[in-house]
Amino acid sequence: MQQLGYQSQLQPFSYTAGFFTEMSGQNVVATLMPSHPVKAHVILTAHYDHLGKQGDSLYAGANDNASGVSALLFLAAQFAETILPFQISFVATDAEENGLHGAKFFVSQLPPDDSVTILNINLDMLAVSRADKTLYAFTSYAQRHALQSQLSAITSDTIKIKVTSSSNTMNRLNQGSNIDWRRASDHYAFAKAGFAYIYFGMGYDPHHHQRSDLLSNIDQNLYIEAVNYITQFIQQLDMTKLTEAAQ
Ligand SMILES: [Zn+2]
Predict the structure, then answer these.
(1) How far is the CA of 245 from the centre of ligand 1 (A)?
(2) Which residues of 168-192 are buried (b: 16+ CB within 10 A; e: fewer)?
(3) What distance lies between CA 123 and its chain's CA centroid?
(4) DSSP label at 140?
(5) Residue 82 burial by CB count (10 A; 0-12/13-18/19+): exposed, middle or buried?
(6) Which domains does the chain have, with CATH numbers?
(7) Cα–Cα distance for residue pair 247/242, rounded to 1 Å
(8) How remote is the CA of residue 68 from the centroid of ligand 1, in Å?
(9) How many Å lie between the centroid of ligand 1 and the Cα of residue 86?
(10) Neighbours of ion ligand 1 (CB under 5 A)
(11) Maximum distance among all alpha carbons in the chain?
């Protein structure tokens, strides 16, 4: 991030795990300071923690969430030289798996400024091998139409995009999974604080939190398509049309 010219820092924090155990983590925060005052701040997040080693088992976490972190790094490289009509930050969060702690801490440290509209774009599990080749954009009920119209301007030969604000809908399309997609990842820390958010992911993954979450189970072409799609979306993002706070 530093090499790309971003103002970057480690953001250490501590949190309580279980009842009494004090744990620590650190986010990586990189920001491109705009050359002129802007009214909007787009904050991309991807958690870089995973289950890691448990006993003799290694949980590599290729989809959850090396896929999101790789996309974050790619996007940071793409936008390092671009003048965007908003401030952009890239945050690799820690301690997502045991309670979204890194994202919660990051949100708690945002300067209170009502004149700046914040949008979180969260990337988590972007590389599920799916026959239906669908990328989900999960957002708030209030924002879904505005988001839909911006996403429909982007074309892809291979990937289908599904905008939804309903966990029920997303579960129905995902082998009947039973996931609260609003709370499932770091975007919830932003949602809870009243900020707009978009969660990009490919939905239910049978390898989630299994040792089989490996590169060999990833459809790499589909993943690249998904990341290209998100890149285009950010390039064309019109924040003035996405200003409704999400709840
Ligand atoms: Zn995850």
Answers:
(1) 24
(2) eebbebbeebeeebbebbbbbbbbb
(3) 3
(4) -
(5) exposed
(6) 7-242 (3.40.630.10)
(7) 13
(8) 8
(9) 27
(10) 64-65, 124
(11) 52
Question: What's the CA-to-centroid distance between 100 and ligand 1, angstroms?
Answer: 10
Using the predicted structure, report yes or no on whether residue 21 has a pLDDT greater than 80.
yes
116 Cα–ligand 1 center, Å: 28
Residue 126: Cβ within 10 Å count: 26
- What is the 157 CA–ligand 1 centroid distance (Å)? 27
Residue type (1 letter), 210: Q
Site of tokens 């064309």: 236
pLDDT band at 244, cuts 50/70/90? Answer: low
* Residue 160 tokens, joined: 């289908």
Distance 103 CA to ligand 1 centre (A): 12
Q: What is the pLDDT of residues 28-64, one digit of tens each?
A: 999 988 888 889 999 999 999 999 888 899 999 999 9
